[in-house]
Each structure stands twice: as C-alpha cells, then as structure tokens.
Design goal:
heterodimer, A: mainly alpha, Cytochrome Bc1 Complex, Chain D, domain 2, two-stranded antiparallel sheet, 5 helices, 50% helix, 3% strand, B: mainly alpha, Cytochrome C Oxidase, Chain A, globular, disordered N terminus
C-alpha cells in the first residue's frame, strides 16, 4: 500500500514535469491528427517509437532527423516496394493532409526529451 | 504407507476405480473456458510461425497478412487465451475455496459466449479488412483507443472486455461473499479486480505521446508485473494445496510473502519503462533499483513450488500437473526474473531498449509465468471436470512430452533471440560506424532461422498437448 501511494505521488510529479521536460515538443492540431493517422494504420505493429512497439522495422522516434520530412512522405507513398524477399510495408493511401500530419507527429516525437536515447541516429 | 493411504482417503471424492467427481457441479463451467484457451493458444503459435518466417522471408504472405496484422493477432490471441485461462481458473477454484456452488453458472456460460464471439469477431476483423477500415467501421473517432501496442482492439471490443470482466467478477464476488474466505481466493480476487481496474486506463489516450505512453504502462506493466502475478500466485497455491496435500497454512504463508514482494518491487518497478519516453530522469534510479528486485518474488515462486512438492504428503496420480507446476516455477523465474534483470538497469537498457533482447525476455516470461500457470491449472482441473482424478498413464506421458517439447523449444527461442539481440546492439548501437536497422537485420538472419526452427518444435509440442486430451484409454 505504501508503495502504491508512493507510485501515485511520483506519477503526479511526473505528469507535472512532462511538459517542462520537453519544451520543444509542441502539441498542435496537426500533431494530434498525425498521432491518429499513426494509430489507425497500426504503425506500431512493425516499428518502434521511442523504443516501444514491434521490432520488425526501424525506430521512428528520430526518423525526422535521420531522413527528413520529404523523404518520409515519399517513402510512405512509394510502398510497397515489392522487392522479392524483402520486408514489405503496406500502401496506406494517405491524403496529402494526412501525410503532412504524420510528418508533424514524427517531428514532435523527435523533439521529446528522451534523456538522450537512442544512442545514435540509426535508432 | 499408512499416511499415504490416509491422505488418499482424505481426498474424499476419489474412488477406488479412479473415477472422481467435482466437489461442486458448477465448477464445470470452467470447461469451455479452458477449451477456448487451448484453441486460441494453438492459433497464437501458428501466427507466431508466420511472423517468424516474415523476419527472414520479408514478403511471405504479403499483402494478404502483413507483419503488423500477424503480430497483432499473435499478441492479442495470447492476451485473450490467458484471460480465458484466468477466467476458467476463477470459475473452477473460487467455488471450491468458498465451499459452495457458483452464484450463477448460467451467467458464466452466457459470458463465455459473449467473450468468445467478441474475440473471434475482432480477430476476423484484423484479418479481413485493413486496420484503418476496421477503425472507421467501429467508430474509433468517437473514442480513439486503437493503434497502441497490445491495445489494438476496437473500442467496442474493449467495452465488451470490461462488460465480460464485470460479469465474471460479479459472479465470483457473490460466490465468495456467501462462502468461506481463504487467502487463496482473496489473493485471486484482488488480482482479478486489479486486472479489470487497470484495464480502464486503455480508454485513456491523450494526444501527448509521453502521457499516452506513461499511462499505457499502467495497463501493460501493472498487469504482467503486478496483478497478474497475484493471479498466478493464487493459481499455483491452489494447485499445490491439491496435489501435495501440504497444510494450507504453510502454503498461504508462502503466498502472502510472494505477493508482498511482488507489490513492493513491481509497482515502483514500473519505472524501468520510463527511462527513455520523455519522463523525468529520476525514474532511471528508481526503476533500476526496484526492478532489479523484481526477480525475488519469481525466485520465491520457484522455491515455493519445489519445497511444497518435496514436502508432499500424498502422491497425486496427476503427475503431469505436478510437472507443469514445477516447470512454471522455474521458467517464470528464468524468463521474467533472470531475462528481465539482464536488461533492466538503465545503463544497459540504454543499449538494449527496443531490440530483440526485449523480444527474447517477452517470450520466455509470458510462456514461463502465464502460459504455464494456465496450463498447470488446466492440467489439474480438466481431468476432474471430465470425471477422473487424473488422466490415464498414456495420456499423461503424451502431455509430459508436450511439456518438454514446448519448454525446451521456448528456451531455444529465447536463446536465439538473445543472440540476435546482442548482435543487433553491437552492430547498430555500439562503435563508431553503426549499421542501419535493416542492414543489421540482414546480419542476424541466421539466428532468426534458428528461432523459426525452434518455433516448429514448439508447434509440435502444442499439437501433442492437444492430442493428449484425446487419449482416454484407461489403465488396467
């Protein structure tokens, strides 16, 4: 019981601290839309985001720095590659607005202060 | 010898011809729950093999079953079959502990069909239409909860899970209130209520990704490293009371110590998930320190199982159930305890977070702790539900073969994934010229092949396990 109360107190402190921890990660309507697009296409079913998710495809928490916005959009639109034997990403038929929103969400994710994780740009 | 006979007589329901009866007829409602659990377990393994192959033959079954769909089916089936197992266990053990019939067997059967149909429809939905279409069809926009790992179920399915859980808890709570209250049944109920309460956080999905992740763990971690351990402890204690004949007082003392250690280490231990998701850095200290102690309750379970079996006061004819109970104690400690500890300290986790190391731990921990405790319970209870104290020798031999095949296969799956993970960390995260994710994956493909081979052995184990239920020949 003591430990549960301690956990609640720490969680209260964390919830207060989360916005201050990542001043650069600014929430906007577009980011929120991007998160929804991320969710309803089950991106987490193959990728990790801040290290959490599936381990089948690259980490995307820092993909904004690794690849940049234009590459991300072009990549999503070009799928699947249909290269024989290679891992395939489905075609999600995203609109231009949705593509921009996903990029905004990934930019936001990359600006979260993760205590310096991942160790390098490869994720 | 005389004490042995006395113990057998004390078992009551046992008759000379090997037939036995349930102490309470309503305990039989557990049967469909156990059958569903086994069926879904089988399917889970099939989808695991599909995913395992996709790791090395990337376009296998694409676009019919993309990896994300196979994984969602694999992990969701795991959760659902374990829930079926916990529910069956609850319906079986609560009446016996309470010494009265279940409050409403009809409600239990009705709830079973609701849960099964909802579960099957959800999986069919995953497979039949693109996930985004499923989200649209089920009105995800009204209350967006989908698209987060393990909580991929449509919101309406989540509401169904809550309804099923409430019906189940109502039924058991009414039974327990009117009957005998034991430590085992109270720990079981605490665990099951906790399971339902923490699941409610799956409906909380804030736009802020850090907040989302922070409370997502209130479902995932506080389930598997919190309240599920209480359920597991209670199930193990129940079976050990039955198969060893050791005094209940002794077993209950162990149970209390185990759950105390679970809660002391596991709750603050949640912090080991808060290192790199945008939470304050003090979690690195707290999470490391407390989660380093999380192996303790699992080690106590190992000692518990072996001590009780060593001190047994009867030779229970169901040797397979005893084997499962011992195996569960060992494998839970290895998978959850040792493999968890291996990467739980922040400086190590910095390198291993989100790699195949995580996957290796997940596989052995879920199998060792939760799959095996459910299989222990099924192994003990199913023969009784089918009117005999234990299955025939022939059937038990096949069941024990399945135990060893599955367990050894899982050890190798874990070792191969660990090897893949170490190599992945080395190539992708250490050194001056790290490789890209995909280039690294090509380098470790050899271990993925070995993992897949071990997976095939696991499947053979599951098939033998199912077959053991159809070997009814009585020994004479």
């Amino acid at each position: 019981m003591f430990f549960f109360l301690l956990f609640l107190a720490l969680s209260y402190d964390t919830v207060q601290a989360i916005p201050k921890q990542s001043p650069k990660a600014v929430m906007t309507e577009q980011v929120a839309l991007g998160k929804r697009v991320w969710e309803v296409n089950n991106c987490i079913g193959c990728h990790t985001l801040l290290g959490e998710g599936a381990y089948f495809a690259p980490e995307l928490g820092n993909v904004y720095q690794r690849r940049g916005p234009e590459f991300i959009k072009a990549w999503i639109q070009a799928q699947p590659t249909n290269a024989p034997g290679r891992r395939q990403m489905p075609q999600f038929h995203l609109s231009q607005e949705e593509l921009d929103a996903v990029v905004a969400f990934l930019k936001y994710s990359s600006e979260i202060n993760t205590n310096n994780w991942p160790p390098n740009i490869e994720g | 010898m005389t004490s042995h006979v006395a113990a057998l007589n004390a078992a009551g329901a046992q008759r000379a011809d090997g037939h036995a009866q349930l102490r309470f007829r309503s305990q039989a409602v557990a049967k469909p729950y156990f059958i569903a659990a086994i069926g879904l377990f089988f399917l889970q393994i099939v989808f695991g093999l599909i995913m395992g192959l996709q790791y090395v033959i990337g376009d296998f079954m694409f676009p019919e079953i993309p990896f994300n769909v196979a994984r969602m089916v694999h992990t969701n089936l795991l959760i659902v079959w374990l829930l079926f197992g916990f529910m069956g266990a609850g319906y079986y053990l609560i009446p016996e502990e309470s010494e009265r019939e279940l409050y409403s067997p009809k409600l239990a059967i009705f709830t079973f069909w609701i849960f099964l149909v909802a579960g099957v429809l959800t999986v069919v939905g995953y497979l039949a239409v693109p996930y985004a279409t499923l989200a649209q069809m089920t009105g995800n926009d009204l209350l967006p909860t989908m698209g987060r790992e393990f909580l991929e179920q449509p919101t309406i399915t989540k509401i169904g899970i809550v309804a099923v859980a409430l019906s189940f808890l109502f039924n058991l709570s009414m039974t327990i209130l009117a009957g005998r209250k034991t430590s085992i049944s109270l720990v079981m109920m605490l665990g099951l209520w906790g399971l339902a309460v923490f699941f409610l956080f799956s409906f909380y999905n804030p736009d802020n990704l850090v907040m989302d992740k922070y409370f997502w763990w209130w479902v995932v971690h506080l389930w598997v490293e919190g309240v599920w351990e209480l359920i597991m402890g209670a199930m193990l204690a129940f079976v050990l009371v039955k198969v060893t004949g050791v005094d209940r007082e002794v077993i209950e003392k162990w149970l209390y110590l185990i759950i105390a250690m679970t809660l002391i280490t596991g709750i603050i231990g949640t912090g080991h998930h808060y290192f790199w998701i945008g939470a304050p850095a003090y979690w690195q200290v707290l999470g490391s320190a407390f989660s380093a102690l999380e192996p303790i309750p699992f080690f106590m379970m190992t000692l518990f199982a072996f001590n009780m079996v060593n001190k047994r006061r009867r030779e229970h004819p169901n040797k397979a159930a005893v084997l499962w109970a011992l195996g569960c104690g060992v494998m839970a400690f290895l998978g959850a305890g040792v493999w968890g500890f291996m990467h739980t300290l922040a400086p190590i986790n910095y390198l291993t977070h989100g790699t195949q190391i995580t996957a290796s731990h997940g596989h052995m921990a879920f199998y060792g702790a939760y799959a095996m405790v459910v299989l222990t319970m099924i192994s003990y209870a199913m023969p009784l539900i089918r009117g005999r104290e234990a299955n025939s020798n022939a059937s038990q031999v096949v069941e024990m073969w399945s135990f060893w095949l599955m367990t050894i296969a899982m050890v190798f799956i874990t070792l191969f994934l660990t090897a893949a993970g170490v190599l992945q960390v080395w190539l992708q995260r250490m050194g001056d010229s790290p490789m890209s994710f995909m280039a690294t994956q090509d380098q470790v493909a050899f271990f993925y092949w070995l993992r897949e081979a071990a997976g095939v052995v696991f499947l053979i184990g599951v098939i033998l396990y199912v077959a053991s239920f159809f070997i009814n020949k009585q020994d004479n």
